Amino acid sequence: MRFNKSPIETMKKRQSIRNFDTQTIKDSHVKRIKEYISNEENLVGPFGSKGRIEFIQVTNNVSDKGIKLGTYGFIKNPQAYLTGVAQNGKYSLVEFAYTFQKLVVWLTELEIGTCWMGGTFNRNSFEQEIQLADEEFIPCITPIGYPNQKQRVFDKALRYVVKADNKKPWDKLFYDSTFEVPLNQENAGSLEIPIEMVRIGPSASNKQPWRLLLTRDRKVCHFFIEHTPNYSSKLGYDMQLLDMGIAMCQFELACKELDIKGDWSVTNPTLKLPNEHTEYIVSWNFL
Q1: d(CA 137, CA 237)
Q2: Are the beta carbons of 214 and 183 closer than 8 angstroms?
Q3: What is 170-286's CATH topology?
Q4: Which of 155, 200, 211, 222 is most deeply buried (CB count within 10 A of its CB)?
């Protein structure tokens, strides 16, 4: 897929939108969204795992099938939902979130608002809306619509309440050669912007579970997850794996824009981990 604007600038300005304008989504935008989610290339992750995304139009929170999808707390006037469908496996979830975040960034470029939702919606009502195969489930959804400009003050207040702008600093997230040495921005070289895009990315409850470690020779960047114990166990899946897919997407989009060539692999490095909650996920190898 192609972006018409700078993905880095788009990722910088993207915010979760919880209050939408009552204007319906333009037919031209609906057409482009449906084309996007029907293109198989947009739905396949780096290792070949494929999910799907369903478009559900709503009027007053009721779908065309007459199923009430709910308003979910602070979400107001959604004009449609994009519903993710994937298998409940470690890498299928990571890869699905990678593809879903690319869609979110693309929608932001179109000035269509989004808000990742993984736990605070009624899965049963969405399951009635779409056909699920045996091993499929709905890991996440996003309401979509045009941001309500009059409500930006409300959104800003809400962002304060949910600590949406309270991002962890570099020294809590990124490491240089070992987990005992924090990575300074000035030592990141050409990777400063891709790594910063990971830092500012969305995550469940803004917990930012990603931990990146740059090797001494600067040829590999390893991605780890620091699990929050029992975070989403009641939901029956590890929601924080979605955050890792988001991190991969943010990092890769920035690398591509900056012409930093590389690819993904799973090659678990033998490193001393900082605690029992930290787990290796993936590596970016520079070409």
Answers
A1: 10
A2: yes
A3: NADH Oxidase (3.40.109)
A4: 211
Q: To which residue do tokens 């780890």 refer?
A: 224
| The domains spanning 7-155 and 170-286 adopt the same CATH topology | yes
Q: pLDDT value at position 149?
A: 81
- Phi then psi for residue 162, to 5 deg, are -90, 5
Could you give phi then psi for residue 108, rounded to 5 degrees? -60, -40
Tell me the Ramachandran region of residue 16: left when phi exceeds 0, alpha when psi lies from -120 to 50, beta otherwise: beta
d(CA 116, CA 104): 9
Q: Is 3.40.109.10 the CATH number for 7-155?
A: yes
Write the burial class of residue 123 (CB in 10 Å: 0-12 exposed, 13-18 middle, 19+ buried): middle
* Single pTM value for the model: 0.94
Annotated domain spans of the chain: 7-155, 170-286
Confidence of residue 70 (pLDDT cuts 50, 70, 90): confident
Closest CA to 281 of 213, 222, 194: 222
Burial profile 151-187: b = 16 or more Cβ within 10 angstroms, e = fewer: beeebeebbeeeebeebeebeebbbbeebeeebeeee
The 8-class DSSP code of residue 191 comes to G
